[in-house]
Structure to design on (280 residues):
DNA sequence: GTTCTTGCAAAATATTTGCAAGACG
DNA sequence: CGTCTTGCAAATATTTTGCAAGAAC
């Protein structure tokens, strides 16, 4: 994602495009997967974790990212939805219990669910756990 | 669950039935939901968190419980499977973003998923997030 | 008596906040 | 100037371990 695209995206979400925020968002976009604070710190290098944290918190408040959790902790993922007031994340994820990575399975849409009366769904975190193809190979 | 049932269950999983472990497992069974360390500490009261932690770790190693994660952190749930070497958790969960509770939706089986070649699935954590019926009412 | 279990305290992590300096309008 | 943002340090919260005393076999 170019800086311009990101600046536009920020504008749509009512977020001021500061240098740090652009770096954080770019790192998230480049990851192509939901990322943890620790991963973002590693990939970025130049920004203090408190800055990353505050950017992510702001992004979340403005529905630019949503969160999901696995055994590595909280992960942040850019919202792909075009409705900027909603967090919907309509694809599955696979979490490898060996290497700890969490991968988007973009091609697997989350199935329809018949929620019982009274529940109001806002987002869905569907995570399959197991061993990823890389780790599978590594074992041989 | 009676102490006898639990003792049998422990035996099936190769776990020694100490007093503490029975208390921890009973608390989990009574909760009817996946529970966090903090919740277990509250409900039990008498056992130090390190003891609860070590019981849960042991249970997990012996496939008596499995874990799932939400914004409250790691939750532990008794395995209902009759295959004692597997963690399968075949129902959905609903996590309320208002009150933080995570509820089993026993009646909603997890759907079949066509995983791409190379992925080996061990368990599935399907968590819907939103507002639960109680919190829904509370807002009016 | 040897091994396993437990509680307490403390170490190791991870998350979140206060504050003063700097950037930006 | 006044408000917003940032980095650093420190406060909190959470998870995990070391160790000595006690229980179980």
């Amino acid at each position: 994602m170019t800086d311009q695209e990101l600046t536009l995206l920020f504008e749509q979400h009512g977020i001021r495009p500061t240098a740090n925020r652009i770096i954080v968002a770019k790192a998230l976009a480049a990851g192509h997967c939901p990322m943890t604070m620790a991963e973002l710190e590693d990939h970025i290098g130049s920004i203090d974790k408190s800055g990353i944290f505050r950017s992510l918190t702001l992004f979340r408040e403005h529905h630019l990212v949503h969160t999901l959790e696995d055994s590595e902790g909280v992960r942040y993922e850019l919202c792909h939805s075009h409705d900027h007031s909603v967090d919907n994340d309509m694809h599955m994820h696979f979490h490898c219990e060996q290497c700890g990575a969490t991968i988007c399975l973009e091609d697997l849409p989350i199935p329809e669910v018949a929620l019982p009366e009274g529940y109001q769904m806002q987002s869905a975190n569907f995570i399959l756990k197991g061993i990823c193809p890389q780790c599978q190979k590594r074992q041989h």
Summary: The interface with chain B takes residues 67, 69-71, 73-74, 92, 94, 97, 105, 107-108, 111, 113-133, 136 of chain A (CB under 8 Å).
